[in-house]
Design a protein that fits this description.
Layout lengths: L31 E7 L2 H8 L4 E2 L7 E7 L4 H6 L4 E5 L2 H14 L17 H14 L4 E8 L5 E7 L9 E6 L6 H16 L4 H9 L1 E5 L4 H9 L47 H11 L4 E9 L3 E4 L11 H18 L4 E4 H4 L6 H7 L4 E7 L15 H23 L23 H9 L20 H4 L4 E2 L5 E2 L6 H21 L8
Parallel strand pairs: 7-8, 7-9, 9-12, 10-11
Antiparallel strand pairs: 1-3, 1-4, 2-3, 5-6, 6-8, 10-12, 13-14
The structure holds N~2~-sulfamoyl-L-arginine and zinc ion (ZN).
N~2~-sulfamoyl-L-arginine binds next to helix 10 and strand 12.
């Protein structure tokens, strides 16, 4: 980022508008965070009837963290729940984070300090502008829509010069406002791909593949987490909010989608009722060069693939599962262990973004749930995890980009999106299992991988070492078997296929 530092070294702005400055903004005063042992579904209902607020948006039996407002304490303590107080001062925790942020020096846009802490929307926008100004040959900023409150929804396109029909990967983050680490990671991959673009491996990739990153899909919600409620999740529709990740058009209103506006997973009055989901939908539909979609969330350390609403296998289950496994392994080599899993096996979430992008737009689609795994930490990660988590996301994204790159290498007429038919029926399913699995295991298995020289699919220990059982989402994630023999077979198939494609296949360029 060195050359960007030339923009200035000592721009110190006034402390940002602070939650602490806002007299209305102490929504968690006297709240406790309590872990409750919930033996079964009936007991879960009994617990929720006390009016406590489950920390995960998809509460399940097991050890469940709940926010307890002062007026709910008596009801909870009167019963025979097995409890552990995780925090006796939730507002204090929020205030502590805020005090740190308010005291921090605002970074010079493009000056290299952006990832030393979490950043508000203004700083994010300034950083995007600075990156685009410093590398106009690589970066284009696109306004793809406007939020309910009139904020711009911005996409960043990163690619080397070349035709617009080169295969492209889209990354979205920040559908859920409180998941700050997802947003910082979206920014981190933008920063790394731009500032390291001259590294030979990356330069070659950017010749072949285009990347679109939307770091903040839900800017109104994100702004609100900085001014009012740190744990706000949804957009700001009528001050109550719609969960954009239940508002997409595939399976809308099905299992795991809330029907009541107050619910954290409220799906909205109809599919694509929200400007944020409309913006993503229209952008995807307007860019037929897209082949893959990565949606970034927190938390739980999981790599999820379709379907997310029903447990039936997607038509391209093998390909999607192989990609998720490869991504989890690549992320695991950077630091934390990630578990690949079909989304619906975690819990059903009808109307989510990746199901729609897979079923209706034909994209190879993955959701990441980033760090932590631990409910006690939840959405408030310390800032020294921004870069390590960003590196994990970058390593996972690199797998997706390799998958996209492999699409570019295919001989004409052999399409392998690894995706279902456009109506989601799976009727035109391709040979994607071998195609895409081969793709994710091509160059990465021998060459260095962004960012730290790991080995991608070649080492699936990230999968095997993933912890069993409860994820940070409060869900009992069952592990998807890595089936190493199958992966090796697919890898070999991919290699054979890929080298054939190299010799006889098309390259991008005039005439495509
Ligand atoms: O519930 C969601 O929208 C996402 N999880 S989060 O904790 N970040 O809110 C993930 C949805 C992934 N799909 C399924 N679980 N089916
Ligand atoms: Zn989320």
């Amino acid at each position: 980022m060195g050359y960007l530092a030339l923009i200035g070294l000592a721009w110190i702005a006034a402390a940002p508008a602070a939650m602490g400055d806002n007299p209305r903004a102490h929504p968690y005063a006297d709240h406790l965070l309590v872990e409750v042992e919930v033996p079964d579904a009936a007991e879960l209902q009994r617990l929720l009837a006390t009016g406590v607020d489950p920390w995960p948006d998809h509460p399940r039996p097991g050890r469940l963290a709940v926010l307890v407002a002062p007026e709910r304490r008596a009801a909870l303590w009167a019963d025979d729940w097995s409890l552990r107080v995780l925090s006796s001062d939730v507002q204090g925790d929020v205030d502590a984070e805020w005090a740190r942020l308010a005291a921090a020096v605002r970074p010079v846009p493009g000056g290299g300090a952006f990832f030393t802490d979490f950043r508000d929307l203004a700083a994010i926008d300034a950083e995007i502008d600075a990156l685009a100004a410093a590398a106009p040959e690589l970066v284009t900023i696109l306004d793809i829509g406007e939020s309910l409150e009139g904020r711009a929804i911005r996409a960043v396109r990163i690619t080397a010069e070349g035709p617009d029909d080169r295969p492209a990967v889209i990354v979205t983050a920040g559908q859920h406002a409180r998941e700050w680490i997802a947003i910082s990671s979206g920014m981190y991959v933008v920063d790394q791909l731009v500032t390291r673009a001259s590294e030979p491996q990356l330069a070659a990739m950017l010749d072949d593949v285009q990347l679109f990153v939307i770091p903040v899909v839900n800017p109104d919600g994100y702004a609100y987490t900085w001014t009012d409620q740190r744990y706000w999740r949804k957009n700001r529709r009528d001050g109550i909010g719609v969960d954009t990740n239940r508002n997409f058009g595939h399976g809308w209103g099905g299992e795991g989608a809330g029907t009541q506006a107050f619910e954290e997973n409220y799906a909205g009055p109809s599919a694509f009722s929200e400007p944020e989901t409309i913006a993503v939908r229209d952008f995807v539909q307007g860019h037929p060069e897209l082949v893959a979609y990565l949606d970034v969330h927190s938390f739980g350390q999981l790599v999820l693939y379709p379907w997310g609403d029903v447990q039936a296998e997607a038509p391209d289950d093998a390909a999607l599962s192989a990609t998720a496994t490869a991504i989890a392994a690549a992320m695991g080599e950077q630091g934390a262990q990630y578990t690949p899993l079909q989304g619906a096996a975690l819990y059903p979430a009808a109307g989510n973004a990746i199901d729609w992008s897979y079923a209706d737009a034909g994209l190879h689609a993955i959701t990441m749930e980033l760090r932590p795994q631990d409910m006690e930490i939840g959405f408030v990660l310390p800032p020294d995890q921004i870069v390590p988590v960003g590196d994990e996301v970058l390593a996972g994204l690199w797998v997706m980009m390799q998958w996209a790159q492999a699409q570019a290498m295919e001989p004409p007429g052999e399409s392998s999106t690894g995706a279902a038919s456009s109506d989601g029926s799976g009727a035109d399913t391709t040979t994607a299992a071998s195609d895409s699995s081969g793709a994710v295991g091509t160059e990465s298995s021998t060459g260095p991988v962004m960012p730290g020289g790991g080995s991608g699919l070649g080492d699936s220990t990230g999968v095997d070492a993933a912890p069993d059982g409860a994820s940070g989402c409060g869900c009992d994630a069952t592990r998807t078997p890595a089936a190493p023999w199958a992966l090796v077979l697919l890898l070999v198939l991919g290699r054979i296929r890929r080298s054939g494609s190299r010799e006889g296949g098309r390259r991008w360029g005039a005439g495509g």
